[in-house]
Amino acid sequence: MDNGKLQMFQNRLLKVYRHKSKLARRQQVSCYRVYDHDLPEFPFCIELYGDKLYLAEYLRRHGMTDEEHEEWLDNCLALIGGLLEMSVANMYVRQRKRMSHRTQDQYEKLDEEKVFFTVEESGLKFLVNLTDYLDTGLFLDHRITRQMVRDEAKNKRVLNLFCYTGSFSVYAAAGEAAEITSVDLSKTYLNWASDNYKLNAFDERRHHITHADVKQYLKTLQPASFDLVIMDPPTFSNSKRMKDFLDIQRDHAELLNDVLKAVTSNGIIYFSTNFTRFVLDETSIKASSIKDITKATTPFDFEGKLKRYCYKLIK
């Protein structure tokens, strides 16, 4: 192993960790991203979830044999654990392909055993899984967006589309929403969303779980059914359970117009996408106001690294 490169990695990791851990303490944030492929020779995503560390190694052509790669990874983990004062027992390592956007395949299960931990964010509890799925169950980049939903939710009927594990629904409940509907095509994630809701001891009668293809579901909604909508779809999905495939660049205007029909006058929609080449078709969207809130919803641990867009639409 090249000790010079390892020293570079150590210096970089120490610098970003000191900076981000200080900001995290100031903001009372216990789940945050420390490092994301800052150096090409060290293609890791490193995130802290309370007292646990999640490390994803992006797959790449590294030119090492399996034995050499294992030794290199062990050395990296020892260095990371030492700098972040993290025991090996609390470090969870995944290998994943680098993706510029979320796809349905990223949410497929990898292993048979399920290991969940409870973490806190803004006084709310969430189940995360650091071993069995390609994503942990809590998208850290939407921390600020979730708080915006909480601030807007009081007495509103909230619709969480492509809800994943329901973190936006939990925030809406914390914001005293009148009722919340969580929609997803995956029963696994709907169950997870339900568990997150129960974990926070909210009134389950206010939370409606809907197993559906969002594109088809939106066509069934009555006008003015909801006051606040969150839509964070995958970039592309061709699940066999869907009537048609989803392509967010192609479909976003139609989806948003269907949502706009279903919200009340002055209703709010938070829409985000991870498609890096996304272009909003503003002229086709029948909203009275569209505001790009990407920068405003970028947390401290994603500054300069965020690969998603976020918009606030008002009917």
Strand content: 25-35%
The tally of strands reads 15
Fold-level CATH name of the largest domain? Rossmann fold
Q: Uncertain regions: pLDDT < 50 for 5+ in a row?
A: 97-111
Looking at this structure, what is the CATH superfamily of the largest domain?
Answer: Vaccinia Virus protein VP39
Lateral arrangement of strands in the main beta sheet? 9-8-7-10-13-15-14
In the CATH scheme, the class of the largest domain would be Alpha Beta
Please provide the ordered H/E string of secondary-structure elements. HEEEHEEEHEHEHEHEEEHEEE
Mean pLDDT: 91
Q: Quickly give the structural class.
A: alpha/beta
For the report, how would you describe the main beta sheet? Answer: 7 strands, mixed
Helical content band: 25-40%
Number of domains: 2
Specify the CATH architecture of the largest domain. Answer: 3-Layer(aba) Sandwich
